[in-house]
Amino acid sequence: MASEPTTSRPKAAATERGQWSGKLGFILAAAGSAIGLGNIWRFPFSVAEGGGGVFVLIYLFFVLAIGVPVILAELSIGRETRLNPVGALRKLMPGSWWPALGGLGVATGFAILAFYSVIAGWTIGYLYKSVTGEFNTAISASQSGEMFNQLTGDGGMVIFLTAVFMLLTILVVRGGINKGIERATKILMPALFILLVLLAVRAVTLPGGWAGVVYLFQPDFSELNAGVIMGALGQALFSLSLGMGAMITYGSYFPKDESIAAAGVSVAIFDTVIAVLAGLIIFPALFYADVELNTGPGLVFVTLPTIFNALPAGQFFAMSFYALLAIAALTSTISLMEVVVSYFIDERKWSREKAVWLIGSACFLLAIPSALANGASPFLSTFFGGPGDGLDFLSVQNTVWGTYSLSIGAFLICIFVGWKWGIPAALESLEAGGHRVPLRALWGFLVRYVCPIAVLVAFLYMVWPA
Do the Cβ atoms of 269 and 36 come closer than 8 Å? Predict the structure, then answer.
């Protein structure tokens, strides 16, 4: 490929972009991007709603058949172009509408960061509650629900917690790739893994805890239906952060002489292991306390606080759990911000310092309506549909950006790599440095046919459920 004119890439990019120090740095950072509330908050209640082991089995299949191929598709674009999602697609397809797909990814990252930081702020609130001993006494389900409503209904407190989390994200991302993101994830990811393993071992060894392990891994095929299948596919896409250009962005910082395909597979494995470990913490604990499983999104913030007092060393369990939840959320908000920051560094010639502070400030302002949307503001709490049965602003944002936009992005990435840019060009990017991609023909077939069809079916099911 011919070299670009020196004027085609902003001067700031040469000094501000950076590069991972090696494959390990990328794996930890990219796994941190994928690992977040989707693994520890969303995965357990999705398993409970999906009937346990049969959901996990289908989920693992979709991670392999859909998640890994799409991860590699995004990484191939980033490595080839060494640019943000907009610049990458413009470089590969100049004069076309494809850069708009990159723009959708940047907008999606910005919007998700806004409402995600609100939920991340809740984790800090619950970490504080666990440290101060609020879970040391018996708490009924109604009392736990009221505790959650009091937190989310206190607009000033939620805005403050959101600001704290946004500031933490800013401070990491402003340090750049090596001194900021990579350095932070090399500390946060091992800490996250150690906490998960310790809590999982403790939960599994609780009296009656093994029943939770059986529930998680023993499929009951009588529970299998279209909803379970679509839910498992949606969870795989959500958990791996596909469709918003995060892997394009992180792939653009990948060293040229390392095997990016092996690193991408490692990210998917790491992400899946974390989700399963979260299940090994929560389900044995719930079976030990004999608590109703199918409790929906409130499982982590409403149901779990009712059992901490019954657990041996319950306060330590609570503190550790909400600490790891906060760490997982932070590793994700870092990548969400970096997607947007990389765009302004590459395309708008901004310095990293300027990009981080302006984007973080703007995102915090957009987060305020979501922070007020769970009781603090009656209007924002019934934003779509009106009083009584309306959706709150945060839920609307999650649906539009966290569900629809991610699905559209993942579908179009498959179309771009499979049919427009082409599988041979993508494989050449993945195999740069002499690292051959195993099962090359299967990967190409999945990206061209299976992945886009599966994502499209899942999207249509979410828009028009049966």
Answer: no
Scanning the structure block, which residue is given the tokens 């690292």? 435
Considering only the C-alpha atoms of the chain, give the largest distance between any 2 of them, rounded to a whole number of Å: 68
DSSP string, 425-459: HHHHHHTTTT-PPTTHHHHHHIIIIIHHHHHHHHH
Count Cβ atoms below 10 Å from residue 221 Cβ, excluding itself.
Answer: 9
How many whole angstroms separate alpha carbon 311 and alpha carbon 305?
11
Structure tokens at 403: 């569900």
What CA–CA distance (Å, rounded) separates 363 from 344? Answer: 14
Q: Give residue 425's pLDDT.
A: 96
Dihedral angle sign, alpha carbons of residues 183, 189, 190, 195? positive
| pLDDT, block means (10 residues), the chain with 466 residues | 40 57 78 78 84 92 93 94 95 95 95 94 94 88 88 95 96 86 84 86 88 92 87 81 87 83 88 90 85 68 83 86 88 91 93 96 96 91 70 87 88 96 95 85 96 90 74
DSSP state of 10: -
Instruction: Please tell me the distance from the alpha carbon of residue 267 to that of residue 222, in angstroms, as a whole number.
Output: 32
Contact 339, 85 (CB under 8 A): yes
Q: Would you say 101 and 413 are in contact if contact means Cβ atoms under 8 Å apart? A: yes
Q: Which residues contact 365 (CB under 8 A, 6 or more apart)?
A: none
Domains of the chain: 18-463 (1.10.4160)
- pLDDT of 58 reads 94
Q: What's the rounded Cα separation, in Å, for the pair 286 and 297?
A: 15
What pLDDT is stored for residue 389 in this prediction?
A: 65
Confirm if 416 and 101 have CB atoms less than 8 A apart.
Answer: yes
Token code pair at residue 280: 């090994």
Chain centre distance of CA 145: 26
Beta-carbon contacts of 419 under 8 Å, excluding residues fewer than 6 positions away, are: 448
Residue 233 is which amino acid?
Answer: L
Burial of 432 (0-12, 13-18, 19+ CB in 10 A): middle
